[in-house]
User: Fold this.
Amino acid sequence: MSPTPPPGRITPLLRGLAGRCPNCGSRGVFKGIADLQEHCPTCRFSFVREEGYWVGAMTVIMALILVVFGTFFVGGMLLTWPDVPWTGLLIGGLIINGLLPVFGYGWSKTIWVGLHLTFDPARAEEFRPAPDGWSDERSDET
Ligand SMILES: [Zn+2]
Assistant:
């Protein structure tokens, strides 16, 4: 088994932003609403590349929350000044800060893996071996 041929430089990041496998671009990488499979069901790339790997995904989700909440809060203030609807901004802020970490965490993982693959392409040993009876054009080892 070998890694997928190297895509364009930022292609893994774009695939991660789209919520797809950063290595091959296939769908079906999520497990439930907020988590990622251990490996891609199509190319079998293992998403956990090293111990403690999801610390990077936590950084990504915190950055996403900061950008979304900051845009909502500052944009809301600027658009409605001087009669700022503080209660509406408070409720919207609570919703953003409460729901985005839960529903965006799996997405932050695909973004993180895509960001990492952009700078450190996949190696052959990062692919899970195919189960018995599984075959495609990449399982040509004997
Ligand atoms: Zn894949």
Q: What stands out?
A: The chain has a mean pLDDT of 88.
